[in-house]
Amino acid sequence: MKRRWPSIALLLLLCLSLLLSGCDALGSRGGDGGDGGKQETEQRQVGGYASVEGIPDYDGKAYVELEGNQPRFTQEELTTAAYEFYSELDSLGRCGYTMACVGKEIMPTEKRGDISSVKPSGWKNKEYPADLVDGRYLYNRCHLIGHQLTGEDANKKNLITGTRYLNIEGMLPFEDMIADYVKETGNHVMYRVTPIFVGNNLLASGVRMEGYSVEDSGEGICFHVFAYNVQPGITINYATGANWLNGDAEAVTMGEDTAETTVPEGEPTYVINKNTGKFHKPTCPGVQDIKPENREDFYGTKQELLDQKYTICGICKP
Amino acid sequence: MKIIVCLDDREGMTFNHRRQSRDRVVTADIVREAGDRLCMCPYSESLFLETAIARLVSEDFLEEAQAEDWCFVENRALAPYRDSIGEVLVYRWNRHYPSDTTFDLNLAAEGFRLAEREEFEGYSHEKITKERFVK
Q: In this predicted complex, what is the ipTM?
């Protein structure tokens, strides 16, 4: 965990500029997570607003705007000193809220590392037809704060079990929007992601995402949304993470509610050689020659690897 | 008139009243394409303040533009002006960003054909695709 705080002078300057700008993007809440009387039935951590109160049911769109798309950052939370914060896991092994001031100074300069060692709560992965789940595997290890923003790899405090749909349709568009804005302007963006677990569920119902560009008082980035942890065509038991095709009976496919690893992960989509930067089909003969410390199993699409600057193996041509 | 737009993979233009993205290389290319004058709404002007191009800035810029003018459009519906649009220049971010306002013309259905496509690297975007549609 890295955490740096701005100087008092900078903070005062920011507060003053916000007051003068009359910005209405910020809530009047303090940093204790209270919301002025609104009942937070699922609140379990400070600062994250982990409640399903007021969030409509999924109706076909990957995310929904909340509270007029105005984030709840307080003036005291705004800073131009880049930092990142990750909550401790709770007693059920679940992630809490994460928060960062995203700036170029903490954005990654290297490719994403191996995150397969992390098994987030509710990790009961299963393979489905590719026309139903892009990448075939229902679950991704979803970064709460995307790798492209703070460069976190196998940080268990930053990875939740999320559907492919949540990862690609719900979260990635916002992460890319922030990353490209920061790269273009050199400005900073306050970003908070709060996974919302109902009761003792091991799988999050979704994530609350808030973003706000600091130097231009939200002119560039300003949003407050909830992204749904759903996958069209698939039914999910949020208590355990078990899942099955719509219309199938849960008992047929989920079996006993045992350990999280009872459902095998299956064969990876591709195998990465971290030493050469190439990726292979799992059946490629070259895979056998990859040293264990250089091998990473990858569950996702070819385009994702190309986006991460990996190159295609010239033998198997995946 | 001639139209310039920036779009994401889903034809998105803005989200929460803000442009989805910006890139100084794209801005420079728009200025080069527009030549003498660029028409825009007040929201768009901040992108061009540091350029030398002459600007027609007005909330009604689509009504005020002349036939030969280039109009940079970020947050306006274009369907009402379809009959007066002769050329469309599209810059694609090659990203999927959040959006709540999308480009409302189906260029093929409107009788436009793709006359030119090129790709170049932006400042903050790995690949920008530039497409020129003419009638």
A: 0.96
